[in-house]
Amino acid sequence: MDDSLVPGAWVRHPDRPDWGLGQVQSAIRNRITVNFEHAGKVLIDSDVISLSVVDPDEI
After folding, report:
1. What's this model's pTM, rounded to 2 decimal places?
2. Which domain of life is it from (predicted)?
């Protein structure tokens, strides 16, 4: 798991830009729960999908 995927971190899904910006809600091992602007709450397997962490200053 990426150490930057902690609750509160802002991320984007590389294959679903239409989901918009997401905020990590929880991160337990490879299971990352993210609340996306246009997709709602989604459970991501970080072994399969590499979320892109967004710099909070760029939001």
Report:
1. 0.91
2. Bacteria
Counting beta carbons within 10 angstroms of the beta carbon of residue 43, is it exposed (0 to 12), middle (13 to 18) or buried (19 or more)?
A: exposed
What total of structural domains would you count in the chain? 1
Domain hosting residue 16, numbered range: 10-54
**Cβ–Cβ < 8 Å for 27, 4:** no
Residue 37 in tokens: 């602007």
Name the residue with tokens 């991160």: 27
* pLDDT level of residue 59 (50, 70, 90 thresholds): confident
Q: Which residue in the block uniquely carries the two structure tokens 């929880």?
A: 26
